[in-house]
Amino acid sequence: MAKLNRSLDALIVPVLLPLILPVLLLHLAACAGIKTATGADAAGGDAAPRGVDAASSADRRAPDRDGPGQVIGTGPLGDAACASRSQQAERVQLDLYVMLDSSGSMDEPTANGQTKWMAAQAALTTFVQNPQSAGLGVGLQYFPLLRPNVPDTCETNPTCNGGTCGLQRACNSPTNPIACTTNASCPAGIACVRVGLCFGPAGDVIVCFPALPGYICNNDPTNPCLPLGGYCSNRDLCGPADYATPAVEVAVLPAAAPALVASLAQRIPDGLTPTGGALSGAITHAQAWGRSNPTHRVAVVLATDGFPTECTPLEIPDVAALASAAAAGTPPVSTFVIGVFAPAEQANARTNLDAIASAGGTGTAFLIDTSQNVTQGFVSALNAIRTVGLSCEYQVPVPPVDGGVPDYFAVNVQFTSGAGQTVTIGNVHDRAACSPTKGGWYYDVDPSTGATPRTINICPAACAPLQADPTGRVDILLGCTTVVIVP
Fold first, then answer.
1. Dist CA 278 CA 125 (whole Å)
2. In this structure, how many other beta carbons lie within 10 angstroms of the beta carbon of residue 280?
3. Which distant-in-sequence residues (6+ apart) come within 8 Å of 174 by Cβ?
4. What number is the average pLDDT over the span 101-108?
5. Residue 162 CB: number of other CB atoms within 10 A?
6. pTM for the complete prediction?
7. Cis previous bond, 221, omega within 30
């Protein structure tokens, strides 16, 4: 019934060096003699080797990036003799909370005869069982969630147990069959009539009207236009709190895969599309999960085949505002969007879903064409999200000293390409200081304020080559004065 209700309604660069070389002030950053204004070295003294010392970090202020001599090296950090410790960077754990559309329209067939729901099931099953997804955290919930003791169809309000029964009506005009509630909703002289169902020429079920006694389909007296049952307004849950509770809690793959696959196998498409409440609940859970797991990066994946049809917010700009607030929140939560639409719906879907993805900090939505291989397209979208979501965020190394913390102003980041070329990535103050050309890295919080950084974040311009070189590695060096980028 829901299906009929709605029918009415990377950059690839081989190594980092060619990216940074043309646009940065080039200078080899040796461990001694670089005059970054940090602590005792502000007077211009040599950058002596620094060990892991809790007290020294607390007394130090951020590098003065406006003074002379702060430059970024283009090669490795000298011989790194000043480094007290070096280790391969540990990427921040990525967790995805998937909010999957299971409305009635997901039962519609695709070009190969497979329904959209079957394609989504197969794609998610393939994704979570893929060895390349190992180490990824994945949780799952569906929308809509249905209220118990409310029938799937109705004729009168009392049968809805507190809701109203919405009967499907349309203006009785072959050229203008718009949805209506009364005759006043239709052009003059055209009645608002009940919508029904009958069998099409190929034996498929089609929409017909008017659904009144004596009206038949295809001039076949044995094929009457039967009234389409109404839909109870209170059947689908709207509250964000309902969607903030996962069907399958976020857990690490591959151990989490059996529970996710079993849940997908048990789900049956039904209901309408309360997108706003579903996304709001997903964000709520993702933020709570992020607060409980501060070293993780958490993102929401909204996968749908339609636009909001009920509950608030209903308008796309208001739904996008939810994603925008999440991306700017603490902790920040990005929103990825996957859409499954017929060819004729692609343009409208692009406009609407891109608005949500852009607001959620992920650029554009992944659109899948139902005339193509939907399962393959869905898997490709999930794989891309995994690659992009595994962003250049790394954990700040914990010193192997009781009570010790790193000297946050004696930390450096080096990238070694798969071809063996090593480059030092310079530090910038924060994300706002990143640029499309200079790259750089920054802490999640400013240590000069007394805050304790948890992650090292690589700017987008420097991150793209890292992501494009899966055989490369990132190392964190402790003990050498931090190399910074001059604004």
1. 22
2. 26
3. none
4. 96
5. 12
6. 0.72
7. no
Go through 66-76 and write b for each residue having 16 or more CB atoms within 10 A of its CB, e for each that does not: eeeebbbbbeb
pLDDT at position 129? 98
Q: What are φ and ψ of residue 37, in 5° steps?
A: -80, 85
**Alpha carbon 445 to chain centroid distance?**
23
Q: Which two tokens stand for residue 476?
A: 């964190």
> pLDDT, tens digit, for every residue of 373-383?
999 999 999 99
C-beta of residue 277 within 8 angstroms of C-beta of residue 317: no
Q: Is-contact 82 479, C-beta < 8 A? A: yes
DSSP structure string for 345-368 = GHHHHHHHHHHHHHHTTS-S-EEE
* Residue of 474, 457, 477 lying closest to 466 (CA atoms): 474
Strands (E), 400-465: 411-416, 422-425, 441-443, 455-458
Cα–Cα distances in Å, from 389 out to 255, 392, 433, 436? 20, 9, 21, 19
**Residues in contact with 478: Cβ distance below 8 Å, sequence separation at least 6, in sequence order:** 50, 52, 83, 84, 85, 86, 397, 399, 406, 407, 410, 411
